[in-house]
Amino acid sequence: MAVNLLDFDASSLADYFAGLDEKPFRARQVLRWMHRFGQSDFDAMTDIAKSLREKLRVHAEIRPPAVVSDKFSDDGTRKFLFDVGGGNAVETVFIPEDDRGTLCVSTQAGCALDCAFCSTGKQGFNRNLTVAEIIGQLWQANRLLGDASTDERIISNVVLMGMGEPLANFENTVTALRLMLDDNAYGLSRRRVTVSTSGLVPAMDRLREECPVALAVSLHAPDDALRDELVPINRKYPLHELMAACRCYLEKAPRDFVTFEYVMLDGVNDSEAHARRLTDLVRNVPCKFNLIPFNPFPGSPFRRSPSPRIRRFAEILMGEGIVTTTRKTRGEDIDAACGQLAGQINDKTRRNGRPVISIQKVRSQ
Ligand code: SAH
Ligand code: SF4
Question: What is the pTM of this model?
Answer without folding.
Answer: 0.92
